[in-house]
# Entry
Amino acid sequence: MTRKLRVLVADDDRDVRESLLDVLASMPDVLPVGEARSAMEAIEQSRATRPDIVLLDVRMPGGGEQAAAGIREVLPTAWIVALSGHDDPAVRERMTAAGAGAYVVKGSPLADLVDAI
# Structure
């Protein structure tokens, strides 16, 4: 049996979190391990659950950049996927500098998120 990818969902919008968790739960190679509503929670949950991947909202309380940097400190091997409502090159650049390995615009085809994971 292959090991499932452990994924943490961090977004301050409950509907977005629930939708993402539903999608992840339907993927056979993925195990949702937690959720967070703020940058601080994302960092704490990363420390506690040790995810392989963090789906991280760029505009959450405490800031996506701060969350990405904090996650990098506690879990340097995690793959961070920045999630944004807008395709903003400046935000993309800042998130990449903070440690995100991918950037997906919310509302993009599901295949874009799957590719990022």
Notes: The longest strand covers residues 30-36. The beta strands are 5-10, 30-36, 53-57, 79-84, 102-105. The chain is about 45% helix and 25% strand. Residues 14-25 form the longest helix (12 residues).
